[in-house]
Amino acid sequence: MFPLSAAQQIVWLQQQVLPESRAYHATAVIEFHGEFDPVVIRRCIADAVGRHDAFRIRMCDTDSGIPVQEVVAHISVEVSQYDLRDADDPAGRREELLRGQVTTAFDLRTAPLVRWMLLHLADGHWQLVMTEHHLVHDGRSTVIFLGDVLDQYAAEMSGGHHVPQAAPSYEEYVAYTGSDEYRARVAADVAWWAERLDGARFSVDFPTLGTRRSALFDHRGGQFRQVLPAALMDQVRDVAQESGHTVFATLLAVYSELCRRHSGQNELVIGMPLANRPVEFEHTVGMMVGAVPLRLAIDPLAPGSDLAEEAMTAVFDAIDHESAPIQDLVTALKRSSKGLGNPLFNIMFAMHDAPCPPVKIPGLSANMEIAVSAGSTKFDLSVVVMPDKVLQADHGDHGYELVWEYSTQMFGPEDVETLATGFETLLRAYVARPSAPIGTLAPAVAARPARDARNKDEEFGAADAAEVAPRAGEAPATDAGTPSGSLWLQAFRHILERDDIDEDTDFFQAGGYSLLVPLLVAHYETLAGRRTPTSLVFEFSLPRELEAATAAMAGR
Hints:
556 residues; alpha+beta; Chloramphenicol Acetyltransferase; Non-ribosomal Peptide Synthetase Peptidyl Carrier Protein, Chain A; 3 domains; four-stranded mixed sheet; 16% strand; globular
């Protein structure tokens, strides 16, 4: 057994607080055209699982409240298969099966935290669907694993011998992140970020779009997929090359200007995931992705190319300091982590640049779809850029796809389509005049007049925690009052190691943070002899509130 990595701890906590959320389920669909053998692909999947220990991990409970993990030596790999060639409604049946594949919960105590499904859609047309829990994978891992599977498949189908790429195990990676060398790097990166982010505004609000957030971010989400034509992306590449910028920096600059116009904020903090591995772990499968907060200042009177330059510098600086875990930054910046949203950024911009694994068999082609919607989201607004090489194994001229994921607590579908349309309009204006002041481009792309905020709890239904007591910040009604020596007060003092805490002390303002919540709940359970939802602490963070809320639950 070995501990969770810093990235895994965040995923595990979110899953505990909102077990019904599927924000941390990730699905890739590989589509095959040509002669395909499902028996061989099953064997290749099973063999690859045996080679990659992350896909044999399960969670193990501990008394501390935070689990450890262990690698199961041998597991049975099941690949369900469905023949839809004679179905009355093949497309409808496929969507039904895909929805079940994506949304069915994983038992975190049972390996593998991955599942596979084969769909036979027509003669010579198959799909392999792989759904993973984020505890054991990141986007780069998906491609590494599928590449290993398809390399073995090609070798077996051609009568050759598959020699897998040697790589350290995920357990070795976690051990490496606990080394003195790595922890010294983390400390240096945290200090750099703390200076870089001093005085920043950490949320981006869209007053003319969306709705008013309810108290507890609940990960309910929608998705909109946008295709940027190949001709447009050719222009973007040409302008980026002429300016000495990357395509990603160019797209990030345009996204930043779009958010500036709709938020009215000239300074933004935008999250960016990074899945770079230490050199020796480049081919290791597992959860290694982290996220960093990019701080960008936008002068609407400055040339757009200047903003692209600033974006590129920010990205490269972030890569140089990517070892800092979010929870360490939250602590260093003294940011409250109350609630389930990220306290450092609520919008994200990312590029998935790991290419679709090629199939090295004449007469068989493959393409890939990733980020299949699970009806959940990790942020208010998140955009993932998919280059053509990610979608097509032949790296054909297919343009880019942008996946817009959004919180349905914050936005409706029409809001996100407005943003996506505005993004393409701004992008076209930028490539036509990259030296023009960024704020003057595409003047029609502007925030609408502010509208009345709708109440999200009325529109979508109150969060489950609201059934227990009123909203966070309002003490639940109680007839008997709360004893000064309540069990929750004792738990607060024990976990925070402070004797000066009283019944009206806010856990998060007193130094608590998200990953201490499971320890707090576990200690309370030891004192009270009964379980309580982890989410309760995020909704009610004072001992007085928690005592009344748990009493109300016990009295149901």
